[in-house]
Amino acid sequence: MDRTAREFEFSDRHFSKISAFVTAHTGILLPPAKKDMVYSRLSKHVRKLFQGSFDTFCDAIENGDDEIKELLINAITTNLTAFFREKHHFDYLKQYVFPELMLKNKTTKRIRIWSAGCSTGEEPYSLAICLHEFFNDKKDWDVKVLATDLDANVLEQAASGIYAIERLTQFSENEKKSWFTRGKVNTDLVKVKSFLQNYIVFKRLNLLHTFPMRGPFDVIFCRNVIIYFDKATQRDLFHRFSEKILPGGYMFIGHSETLFNISEQFVSVGNTIYRRQS
Ligand SMILES: C[S@@+](CC[C@H](N)C(=O)[O-])C[C@H]1O[C@@H](n2cnc3c(N)ncnc32)[C@H](O)[C@@H]1O
After folding, report:
1. Where in this chain does the entry annotate a coiled-coil region (predicted)?
2. Which residues are known catalytic residues?
């Protein structure tokens, strides 16, 4: 039963059409309990573009209107993130992974990290900060982060490197000065310094699709993305991750996620930290 009185008619038939489309195109599951969430995320667009008619909105999706399909995907994805979210992952990188890669990759002097499902960029910029702290004095090392997401809006924000100053609560005043420049006109905004941006390449990528990059990666972060996927999609995804990560490479997942019964290719080495079997 619907819990809220809605401004526009939003029937179970509208909801099933929308949820079937979203699951097929993103892997994100939308059980009936998400009906209110879907309505609240879409109603403002349906008001503006379709005079409040979910019928017309669903027709546009069924007729393959690319702009509306993109609007729907961008509205439904959950983009919550933060700088140094799950800080223990970044501590682990600096304490164990980077020193190990210094030895393992000493002939190639190359390190590749993939932030898969990077949202508005706080995760790849946190990785860039760790890389900079560790590798800045090793100028002959080639270290890069590939940051990808399905949602074009969050990627655009990520690539701009511009954030509201209140997003920086995790940083000390000195750290803020080291990594960000304060806006001159709008002093409530900061921009990530360009030397950090230079570590990162942002690209749009749907994780359900074939991975176009050659890889291989030393480390993959795919955190707080698979919670919305069903088990079969998770299995397939981690199988394909295992093909892009080097033997012994590290896989970091979100705090409420697990690879138990999902992948035999990765073994647990810490709290939500895995390694690809050699
Ligand atoms: C909750 S955010 C996680 C951000 C970051 N990894 C973190 O843990 O803070 C989940 C991100 O996954 C992205 N996403 C969801 N389904 C996706 C898919 N099929 N392909 C690529 N990205 C997807 C969403 O757009 C969203 O930005």
Report:
1. none
2. 41, 149
Tell me, yes or no, whether 113 lies in a domain: yes
Q: How far is the CA of 224 from the centre of ligand 1 (A)?
A: 7
- pLDDT tens digits for range 233-272: 999 999 999 999 999 999 999 988 999 999 999 999 999 9
Q: Report how far ligand 1's centroid is from the alpha carbon of 207 (Å).
A: 9
237, burial (CB in 10 Å: exposed 0-12, middle 13-18, buried 19+) = buried
In this structure, the answer to whether residues 115 and 51 fall within a common structural domain is no
Atom of ligand 1 nearest to the CA of 205: 21
| Model pLDDT for residues 79-108, shown as the tens digit of each residue | 889 999 999 999 999 999 999 999 999 999
Q: Evaluate whether residue 6 is within a structural domain.
A: no
Inside any domain, residue 39: yes
Tally of structural domains, the chain: 2
Q: Tens digit of pLDDT for each residue in 146-156? A: 999 999 999 99
Ligand 1 cavity residues, CB under 6 Å: 26-28, 77-81, 85, 117-119, 123, 149-151, 154, 206-208, 223-225, 254
